[in-house]
Amino acid sequence: MERGLVGHTLAVYFSRRFLGAILGLFALAAILIFLFDVLELLRRSSGQDGATLARIGLISLLRVPQLMEQVLPFAVLFGAITAFLALSRKLELVVARAAGVSVWQFTAPALLVGIGLGVAAVTLYNPLAVFLRTQSDEIASGLFSSEQNFLLQTTGEIWLRQDGTDGESVLHAKQTLDGGTRLLGITLFTFDRSASFSERVEAREARLEDKRWRMSDATVYSTTGDPSTHATYYVSTYLTPTEVRESIAAPESIGFWDLPRVIELSQRAGLPAYRYSLQYQTLLARPALLAAMILIAACVSLRVSRMGGVGRLILGGILAGFVLYVLSELGKDLGGAGIVPPVVAAWAPGVFGVLMGFTILLHLEDG
């Protein structure tokens, strides 16, 4: 009974150390990214109307959470390495191992922390980050003109060819919001049924309604008359919200809980849903990826305690984590193109990392 209580206390202590190190590095990275992002936004927006420090700071603050999703695996890796090394430097791991605590017992709390963070990152953090990013795009709309989409990493300028009851048209937009159902900076070229150019429409904003685009503050240039301005102008389209979203909306702009519905709608519409399926499976596999990072850190710490050469072994752990991350990005590219099934592309890096980590630990611990 007493031994079990000691083991529980030790596990809680290790868990707190790992959680503190990981969250500390995550917060430090968030602060650094926020500061650099604000400086870059201020540089790009100099001379623009409405580019106040408060507005720029709010834009950056709201978009940092989604940027940090890419940093999370490295925060877990570096945080776990930091915690393991701190425990080794204070001889706490040495004392624990001398008391009969195996590598599996002091690695288990770190694994539970990593998996728990992965679950929380997927179910809670990701939807919140997507929501905040949407608010950031709303606040930033029209602020950076032609540079905005590249700077804010949105979908970029898009072109759509569509058909409607009035004939075909080609639509160009400088920015997309609300999953592609709201467009800003519109230029539309319409053609009649004989494929002859009919008119050019320039509008501040367009919203997709039932079988039509509703354009605001539109100027119409026709081949048969003088330009005319309209507070509201309508152009018919056969495009559905699902088709527009599949064409231009980034999978990262959709939260975890909304992805299954988007995938189902895309499949019902007969559209490929590789990118959305891949994003969904990537989020589901995130706890496995974080567990792999923890195991890599554990392999480094065990080798340090036995062999020395801290710098060289830490560098090896960092390189292993980086390779694992590159493999996950390569899997995304292959899965997003439909070359590899999304499930395989998303889960393979994490599963491979976990198996590799367990294999190395078994070799180091048991020979």
Question: What secondary-structure arrangement, pairings included, does this model have?
Answer:
Elements: H1 2-44, H2 53-68, H3 72-89, H4 92-98, H5 103-140, H6 148-152, E1 158-164, E2 167-177, E3 182-191, E4 197-209, E5 212-222, E6 228-236, H7 241-248, H8 259-268, H9 274-284, H10 286-307, H11 310-336, H12 342-366
Antiparallel strand pairs: 1-2, 2-3, 3-4, 4-5, 5-6
Helix pairs in contact: 1-2, 1-3, 1-5, 2-5, 3-10, 3-11, 5-10, 8-9, 9-12, 10-11, 10-12, 11-12
End-to-end gap = 31 Å
Provide mean pLDDT, rounded.
82
Counting H and I runs of at least 4 residues, what is the number of helices? 12
Instruction: Determine the fraction of residues in helical runs and give it as a percent range.
Output: 55-70%
What is the quaternary state of this protein?
single chain
- The total number of structural domains is 2
Low-confidence stretches: 146-155
Strand tally is 6
- Strand fraction: 15-25%
What does the largest sheet look like?
6 strands, antiparallel
Radius of gyration: 26 Å
Describe the fold and architecture:
With 367 residues, the chain is an alpha+beta fold. It has 2 domains: 2-143 and 280-366, no CATH class; 155-249, no CATH class. The chain contains 12 helices and 6 strands. It has helices spanning 2-44, 53-68, 72-89, 92-98, 103-140, 148-152, 241-248, 259-268, 274-284, 286-307, 310-336, 342-366; strands at 158-164, 167-177, 182-191, 197-209, 212-222, 228-236. The protein has a 6-stranded antiparallel sheet with strand order 1-2-3-4-5-6. α9 (274-284) packs parallel to α12. The longest helix has 43 residues, at 2-44. The model is unreliable at 146-155 (pLDDT under 50).
